[in-house]
């Protein structure tokens, strides 16, 4: 008697390839077909079935001996085109479903054409897993791009993760595989099993999955359609019309996994975080929250920057609708939400994008183009249309589906340069012999062009640390098209200066003044970000030299400088109350420090600085224009003192910033001013309520008709030790009321 193996080997080649899960076109074999004599033949392959019958024909199917193939022959009129299978498994359970292999292709040719050209901005709507109906039959439509695969199957908890059960059809030269599985609904788990052209089989995640299991598990969820009802229509309308360049923009950068934890040390849900962060940020007066990447990622220690799920909010904190609530809640409280987004590189995890179909698909094959050795990651192939489309669709997905107010694009410098962090011989020049990554440049321009066109008011922000020109200039002027760029030079120079003992600072005065030579060449954000408080760099308070008093005074001085200096503002979580230790991604902030007066003082100062920055036009309207800034004196290196003016766009409101970077109080320090009047002390970082020594000017000082520093008037001020002052001319109606910034209640900040 023939064995099962011998029986399988005796099959015609097409059937044998179905049994062995090697067939690239299962629809040509399985399903409903007319034979040469005009009769009907139906073939199904059900690995877990003991018996199978055709419901409409009321006929049992015959098992092909030694296989899980079942066959039926009959008259065409005996069976409709859309028919059901009823099958019994080994436990006796009976299942009924429509045969997926009797259904036509579901993806439109136009979608596939646009995707192949890299111009389908909503590829996530047809790729991935989606609830779908075919001729009234409900189920899930799966689609994945794997052009070099020999066979792709959908596997999941609904088919015992058996790659033989649901092989997909390939749509011609598009490289896209699809399959509609009837009677399948939300709630299950799935992946793709991919057989490459060398016979190797891998199980991969869906690159377009919109939700995943919580790590360390990696399967995608079959998601229900969102039923979330947004309540932020007013915010979205106002954002579209807002002139963001002339508005205050003050960002609180947050890592959701370490901002706060529950009582057991576990993660909080997006909805809980929304309310807690909303209360906190509103009281502090920041205009926006920026989230470290919440795109799904396997490794907590990557902080989200090694992403595997480019369309999925991480399940660590809840569902996609929970994340929608987070954004909606903050919008309704007047707080914008930005997301760190990482198109530069992706991890090598075998279950994810790396060598997705057995070839270098999303990455370059040549490691001189396709690998970041510093980070142990792979570089996207920006010259491949489908890869570019994947990333463009991801960006628009977050902006459209989650109402995000913008993306901060990570590691832009690594994208722009082919020789980024590479020695000679480790990189390949472009076609002109240069080190510019021309494909990445074009991708970034298209990204920004499309984002701004489709979502006016969206902010696209570059983390870019080199002198690449026109990063934040429009693409039609030859720029990269970003809204803003992080000012890494200012950050490094300023922190370098502040880390020096005050006795030596006069030798390094240029570190403070050099930044104004290029401050208006880009739309800059001044960032004290997460990168500055990890990897042995110390916390912000620990960067300051001297004893405890000097450390806190210097930090207050630094923040006062930042909030009065040209450029938008960004501060990482914990820095607003002088977190004492370096940031740890796996632990909550040291909130207990807020029981100590010195830490309370730092938080109070940041709150008041935000209030002044938001309410005084001179401090925000011309952050990107040279007309908004003027030195009073940048040459007093011997005393380590700086002074300057900030102006609004009409030149009517005026703010004066004066900064003493030594612990020596300076009585009657005279500075020149352009107009007579009473100059009110709006902020004094040395005020007692901030934890300072309270050296100041009793509310303000009157000008004297003494020309000084080339100006017709001057004011003699008491300049506090390691202190910064912000003064305004009292006649300015737009300025906050006297004492407002020194005694701002949380409710006042919220109203601002």
UniProtKB/TrEMBL annotation:
It catalyses: Transfers a segment of a (1->4)-alpha-D-glucan chain to a primary hydroxy group in a similar glucan chain. The keyword Transferase applies. Pathway: Glycan biosynthesis; glycogen biosynthesis. Its EC number is 2.4.1.18. Residues 253-620 form the Glycosyl hydrolase family 13 catalytic domain. Monomer. PANTHER family: 1,4-ALPHA-GLUCAN-BRANCHING ENZYME. This is 1,4-alpha-glucan branching enzyme GlgB. The lineage of its organism: Bacteria, Pseudomonadati, Pseudomonadota, Gammaproteobacteria, Chromatiales.
């Amino acid at each position: 008697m023939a064995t099962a193996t011998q029986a399988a080997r005796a099959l015609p080649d097409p059937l044998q390839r179905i049994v062995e899960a090697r067939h690239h076109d299962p629809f040509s074999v399985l399903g409903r077909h007319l034979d040469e004599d005009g009769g009907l033949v139906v073939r199904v392959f059900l690995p877990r079935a003991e018996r199978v019958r055709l419901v409409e024909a009321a006929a049992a199917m015959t098992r092909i001996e030694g296989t899980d193939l079942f066959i039926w022959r009959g008259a065409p009129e005996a069976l409709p085109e859309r028919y059901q299978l009823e099958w019994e498994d080994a436990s006796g359970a009976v299942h009924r479903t429509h045969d997926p292999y009797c259904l036509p292709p579901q993806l439109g040719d136009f979608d596939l054409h646009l995707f192949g050209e890299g111009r389908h901005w909503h590829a996530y709507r047809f790729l991935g897993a989606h609830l779908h109906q075919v001729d009234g039959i409900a189920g899930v439509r799966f689609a994945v791009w794997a052009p070099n695969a020999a066979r792709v199957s959908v596997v999941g908890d609904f088919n015992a993760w058996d790659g033989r059960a649901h092989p997909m059809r390939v749509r011609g030269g598009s490289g896209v595989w699809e399959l509609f599985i009837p009677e399948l609904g939300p709630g299950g788990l799935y992946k793709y099993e991919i057989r490459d052209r060398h016979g190797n089989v891998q199980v991969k995640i869906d690159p377009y999955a919109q939700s995943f299991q919580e790590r360390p598990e990696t399967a995608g969820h079959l998601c229900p359609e969102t039923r979330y009802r947004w309540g932020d229509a007013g915010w979205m309308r106002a954002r579209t019309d807002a002139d963001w360049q002339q508005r205050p923009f003050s960002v609180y950068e947050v890592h959701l996994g370490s901002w706060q934890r529950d009582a057991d040390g576990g993660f909080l849900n997006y909805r809980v975080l929304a309310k807690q962060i909303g209360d906190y940020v509103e009281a502090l007066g920041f205009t926006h929250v920026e989230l470290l990447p919440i795109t799904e990622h396997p490794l907590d220690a990557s902080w989200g920057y090694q992403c595997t799920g480019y369309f999925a909010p991480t399940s660590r904190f809840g569902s996609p609708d929970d994340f929608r609530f987070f954004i909606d809640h903050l919008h309704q409280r007047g707080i914008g939400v930005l997301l760190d987004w990482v198109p530069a590189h992706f991890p090598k995890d075998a279950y994810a994008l790396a060598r997705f179909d057995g070839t270098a698909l999303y990455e370059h094959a040549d490691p001189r183009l396709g690998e970041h050795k510093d980070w142990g990651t792979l570089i996207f192939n920006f010259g491949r249309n489908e890869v570019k489309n994947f990333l463009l669709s991801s960006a628009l997905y977050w902006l459209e589906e989650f109402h995000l107010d913008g993306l901060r694009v990570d590691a832009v410098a690594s994208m722009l340069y082919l020789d980024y962090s590479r020695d000679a011989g480790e990189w390949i020049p472009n076609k002109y012999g240069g080190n510019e990554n021309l494909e990445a440049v074009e991708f970034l321009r298209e990204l920004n062009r499309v984002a701004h066109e489709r979502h006016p008011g969206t902010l696209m922000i570059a983390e870019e640390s080199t002198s690449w020109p026109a990063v934040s200039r429009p693409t039609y002027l030859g720029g990269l098209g970003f809204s803003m760029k992080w000012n890494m030079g200012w950050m490094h120079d300023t922190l370098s200066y502040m880390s020096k003992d005050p006795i030596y600072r006069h030798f390094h005065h240029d570190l403070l003044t050099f930044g104004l030579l290029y401050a208006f060449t880009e739309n800059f954000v001044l960032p004290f970000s997460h990168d500055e408080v990890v990897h042995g760099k110390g916390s912000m308070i620990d960067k300051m030299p001297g004893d405890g008093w000097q450390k806190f005074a210097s930090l207050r001085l630094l923040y006062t400088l930042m909030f009065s200096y040209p450029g938008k503002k960004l501060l990482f979580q914990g820095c607003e109350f002088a977190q004492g230790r370096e940031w740890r991604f796996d632990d909550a902030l040291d909130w207990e420090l807020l029981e100590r007066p010195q830490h309370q003082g730092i938080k109070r100062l940041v709150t008041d600085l935000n209030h002044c920055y938001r309410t005084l036009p001179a401090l925000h309207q011309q952050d990107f224009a040279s007309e908004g800034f003027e030195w009073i004196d940048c040459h007093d290196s011997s005393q380590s003192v700086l002074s300057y003016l900030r102006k609004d766009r009409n030149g009517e409101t005026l703010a004066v910033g004066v900064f003493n970077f030594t612990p020596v109080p300076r009585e009657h320090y005279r500075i020149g001013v352009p107009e007579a009047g009473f100059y009110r002390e709006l902020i004094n970082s040395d005020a007692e309520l901030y934890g300072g020594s309270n050296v100041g000017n009793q509310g303000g000082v009157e000008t004297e008709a003494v020309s000084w520093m080339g100006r017709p008037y001057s004011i003699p001020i008491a300049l506090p030790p390691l202190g910064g002052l912000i003064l305004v001319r009292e006649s300015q109606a737009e300025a906050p009321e006297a004492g407002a910034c020194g005694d701002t209640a949380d409710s006042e900040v919220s109203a601002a």
